[in-house]
Amino acid sequence: HVGKDDMDVGAGDQGIMFGYASDETEDCMPLTHSMATRLGKTLTDVRKSGELWWLRPDGKTQVTIEYLQNADGSVEPKKIHTVVISTQHAEPSKATRKKECAGYSGPDMTAPSMEEMSKLIVEHVVKK
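Structure (tokenized):
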């Protein structure tokens, strides 16, 4: 950013912008957005609590919903089609909690396998 005008420098982070309101949720956001936001918050919560200690920051979430279009043109959610969670994590089956988590003094443990990580994310984040 050295030598650039303040108006030529972006925020340096990521964001989402919607150009409409929706009656799908109480907060007037599209249902897919609300669900993805809640999943992201839960992902952060289980990481910070130590429940899934091997997770790292900067997870991403995406939710796709199949809708039914009514005769009047309105739509209503029919089913959740896809949930995608992408997250950084410690090395599967190798990383240890004492090395990954600064200040942790409890019993040491090894990060689960990739398959087990996926199952734990479904159980502790998606189904929560």
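The mean pLDDT is 90. The radius of gyration is 19 Å.
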